[in-house]
Design brief:
394 residues; 12 strands; disordered N terminus; 37% helix; globular; Phosphorylase Kinase, domain 1; Transferase(Phosphotransferase), domain 1; Pkinase domain-containing protein
Length: 394
């Protein structure tokens, strides 16, 4: 593909928006035939697509909002982007994500364009909303500022008190709802590909919002999966079929969500100091039914046992090696909210059960040192602690 300059991005973005407006005028031209798509059954959808609410910011607006991209307002930095806190003319706190000047290759620009094209058309309380973009003097995305930072920053900051159980449960349920929306509630199926605690942001009420759509993929209704190379994502969250074969579909996100649930329950990081993944540590405990051994010891027993059982059962289904035997996110929500823990329903055939523990965790560990992940892994969108935000805002 030819190298895309900023002017080309502007033109392509304009075409994307025009195309969406045309779809709004003719709802029957949608890419997905909702009447024939099983994925959309029992999912409330508006009869017509919602028009994007983002706007194009001028460079002057975001320059002034961030005080000239002052280092005092820098709240996150990754392999190819930086995030600045800002204050709009209307007094709204915003986050400005900037493609760094050193990241001038085609792939980084493509990631930005992907994020605009994906998140610009989603509307759900558990998915971060795009306020707008700017394509003058660089590439910028503008979001509402998430004052509490990411789940990872709150869960793993040793200087903060442990997150209480009810907040953890609220985060788990809200994130599941947001992911279910991406898979089944959008006009086009969206596979996020990088679900993890540092990509789930929290508002003042601890309502979670899924963020960072740079790796996201549209999945047309007639397709069963994408085949992707090179493999990008985060070590410890990658589903076996993606890690080994590049196969991506909704179940890829389901696996990562299972790891996210285990992280919420245990307070452990997805990969520990010995390079053991969280899901490989948890599987034997789940298999033996010793659920309470999963719980973050910092909670000192202060948790709701029925809720714990539901989250743990959901996690055990999500992290299955065989994607066929993983639930959809709708089914995950049934477990988490309705207590649907019918073990007979989810019992795998004996031969599948034996293959479940054939050694993917060992393979993952062997490949870990040479496995190449996206440079975005170093720091995710606004992955910053409350302390650093409050210090810089004072």
């Amino acid at each position: 593909m030819k190298y895309m300059r900023t002017n080309s991005l502007k033109r392509l973005f304009t075409l994307k928006r025009r195309s969406f407006d045309e779809d709004e005028a003719n709802p029957h031209s949608s890419i997905i035939d909702q009447d024939n798509d099983e994925n959309f059954k029992n999912v409330p959808l508006s009869s017509t697509p919602q028009k994007p609410t983002w706007k194009c910011f001028s460079f002057g607006e975001i320059f002034d909002a961030t005080n000239g991209f002052s280092s005092e307002n820098l709240v996150g930095k990754g392999g190819y982007s930086e995030v600045y806190r800002g204050l709009s003319k209307d007094g709204e706190e915003i986050a400005v994500k900037r493609l760094t000047k050193t990241s001038s290759d085609e792939r980084k620009e493509k990631d930005f364009l992907t994020e605009i094209g994906t998140i610009g058309h989603v509307h759900h309380p558990n998915v971060i909303s795009l306020l707008g973009c700017c394509m003058s003097n660089g590439l910028y995305l503008i979001f509402p500022f998430s004052s509490r930072g990411s789940v990872a920053s709150l869960l793993h900051d040793v200087n903060l008190p442990p997150m209480d159980w009810q907040i953890r449960y609220k985060i788990a349920v809200g994130t599941a709802r947001g992911l279910n929306y991406l898979h089944k509630g959008c006009q086009r199926r969206i596979i996020h590909r990088d679900i993890k605690s540092s990509n789930v942001l929290l508002n003042t009420d601890f309502e979670p919002q899924i963020s960072d759509f740079g790796l996201a993929k549209w999945l047309p209704s007639q397709w069963t999966h994408h085949s992707i190379a090179p493999i990008e994502g985060t070590f410890g969250h990658l589903a076996p079929e993606y890690f080994m074969h590049g196969v991506v579909d909704e179940k890829t996100d389901v696996f990562a969500f299972g790891v996210f649930l285990l992280e919420i329950i245990s307070g452990r990081k997805p990969v520990d100091g010995s390079h053991q993944s969280l899901h490989s540590w948890a599987k034997p405990i789940l298999r033996q039914g010793q659920i309470e051994k999963l719980v973050d010891p910092r909670l000192q027993g202060a948790y709701d046992l029925p809720q714990l059982n539901e989250l743990a059962f959901a996690a055990s289904l999500c992290i299955r090696s065989s994607s066929t035997w993983r639930p959809t996110m709708s089914e995950v929500l049934e477990v988490m909210l309705d207590g649907d823990m019918d073990k007979e329903r989810w019992k795998m055939p004996e031969e599948e059960e034996q293959e479940e523990f054939w050694g993917f965790e060992e393979l993952e560990y062997e490949c870990g040192s040479s496995f190449s992940v996206s440079p975005r892994d170093s720091t995710s969108f606004m992955d910053t602690s409350l302390d650093s935000i409050s210090t810089r805002s004072s």
